[in-house]
Specification:
Chain lengths: 258, 253
């Protein structure tokens, strides 16, 4: 699991605490380091603060205690443009993510907002759509695609920005098993750091060698995904439940590439 | 652009009119309408010439007359209003088939009818030769207020999403045995409208978050730069310029 030590980790969160303006405290000192190229699952029950944490990664939320830095760059107002290029967040509902009239324009939005134009932009869009296998749909409007296709396009919209870290919020939700598997294949094929927020424990086990449990605003556990899922006491303490009939011990994992 | 992106107003084709950049067509259609509206209503022949001009554009765009005329039906409610004018307007009156009609009302009705019909016909031609998306790009290019263009863009994108939401809510209501009958049920419909508003508002916030996350800072980046050549502008200008000539004759003759 040792990555080249001279490089700054893709993501470094230290002592992050945050309370919403209404006084509700969501994070109580979160420490998390994700090395370059790692795929990490962020697990936790509803209301654990997962979304709050994700929105801190690109500076949408901020102003609490603690620091976040992305590949060595602190998430501060003056760095927002670069930070938002480096952190690609794929939101849960692709209808929120895909807001342009056609797939191509949507994928182009991020790089174009960063000032890219013309042939270079076109090449970037084609490359991102190719990575998720959606090249044939470039000129379709997003609402004419299936849900699984929309999710893949949503991934392409952030890949087009060549992010340092891909943050996926519930990537497998509402997908049928085939789309779920296709998305997993795509995610595995990408050479990018991934932080995956999910309730889908088998999916986390399949894709992420490492997992962290966020519970009540703190990181309650951090380790090999399989070890965490096999720790019944830990699972029960944080309202994490495996699907009926699923035994994480019985799964033979593919040899970890990371 | 590709399949599935067409709106029902648009009629697919490859004519010279279809090929013109949208900003040229928009400007031409707008200028044409302005010219038509500023023509004196007494110059009846001028309106006939305008109609001939539009027919020529329709022919160049290979839009069948039947298609165009059917689209014109959208005008009917306004026509009904125009038809009332001769009966209700004041002033000098003439007898037609034993009915007393106001002269100024008749001119007023003619004015509304002729100018309205020509304006609608020009818009129908524009809409049937230009894709909705292209129209928005044209508006952006013409430097229309960017916020308005963005709002229009989002309307296209989210129109279906919101109708879908409304339909699901309606199905949910009916599945629980609700049928809207009469005034007593208006409350339920009002609440539906209210929750649709809240849902759309919340979606708007989520969309905004997604936009900000991808570097949105208040203006839409230019993704498709659609430049128009001088020749294209000249082609588009044929319609309003000819119409202007007609209009000037209308004022002088």
């Amino acid at each position: 699991m040792d990555v080249v030590t001279t490089e700054a980790p893709s993501l470094e969160v230290s002592g992050l605490a945050y309370a919403y303006p209404d006084g509700h405290q969501a994070l109580f000192g979160v420490d998390l380091t994700v090395g370059r190229g790692e795929r990490v699952a962020l697990l936790g029950p509803n209301g654990a603060g997962k979304t709050t944490l994700v929105l801190h990664l690109n500076g949408i939320l901020g102003g609490g205690v603690g620091t976040v830095s992305v590949a060595g760059l602190p998430v501060e107002k003056r760095n927002f443009a670069e930070v938002r290029r480096r952190v690609g967040i794929v939101f849960q509902d692709p209808d929120d993510q895909l807001f342009m009239p056609t797939v191509r324009e949507d994928v182009a939005f991020g790089p174009a907002a960063a000032g890219m134009r013309g042939a270079e932009l076109q090449a970037r869009v084609d490359e991102a759509l190719e990575q998720v296998g959606m090249s044939a749909f470039a000129d379709r409007p997003p609402h004419h695609l299936s849900f699984g296709q929309r999710r893949r396009v949503a991934v392409a919209t952030v890949l087009a920005m060549r992010p340092e870290i891909l943050v996926l919020d519930e990537p497998s939700s509402n997908l049928d098993p085939a789309s779920r598997r296709e998305l997993a294949d795509i995610l595995r094929s990408l050479d990018v750091t991934v932080l995956m927020v999910t309730h889908d424990l088998p999916y986390a086990l399949e894709l992420c060698p490492r997992a962290v449990v966020l519970s009540e605003g703190v990181i309650a556990a951090d380790g090999r995904t399989q070890d965490l899922l096999c720790d019944e006491e830990l699972m029960r303490a944080h309202r994490l439940e495996l699907p009926f009939g699923f035994d994480p011990r019985s799964v033979t994992l593919p040899v970890a590439a990371a | 652009m590709g399949a599935g992106h067409t709106h029902k107003l648009y009629r697919h084709g490859h004519s010279a009119v279809h090929a013109l950049p949208p900003q040229c067509k928009l400007a031409a259609a707008f200028a044409f309408v302005v010219v038509v509206v500023s023509t004196p209503r007494e110059a009846v022949w001028a309106f006939a010439l305008y109609a001939v001009l539009l027919a020529a554009v329709a022919a160049a765009a290979r839009i069948p007359a039947g298609f165009l005329l059917r689209r014109l039906l959208i005008e009917v409610p306004f026509v009904a209003f125009a038809v009332l004018m001769p009966f209700v307007a004041q002033g000098e009156r003439v007898g037609v088939l034993g009915v007393s009609l106001s002269v100024s009302g008749l001119w007023g009705a003619w004015n509304v009818l002729a100018k309205g019909t020509l304006g609608v016909a020009a818009s129908v031609l524009l809409a049937s030769t230009t894709e909705l998306r292209a129209l928005l790009l044209g508006m952006q290019r013409l430097k229309l207020p960017p916020l308005l263009v963005q709002i229009a863009t989002f309307m296209i994108r989210y129109g279906d999403v919101i109708t879908g939401e409304l339909r699901r809510m309606s199905i949910a209501r009916r599945s629980r045995g609700f049928e809207a009958r009469g005034v007593r049920h208006w409350g339920v419909l009002a609440k539906t409208a209210g929750s649709l508003f809240i849902r759309s508002y919340e979606r708007g916030e989520r969309v905004y978050l997604a936009m900000v996350s991808r570097g949105y800072t208040g203006s839409m980046p230019v993704i498709d730069d659609i430049a128009a050549s001088r020749a294209q502008w000249a082609h588009a200008a044929v319609l309003p310029v000819t119409a202007l000539a007609v209009c000037l004759m209308g004022w002088t003759l």
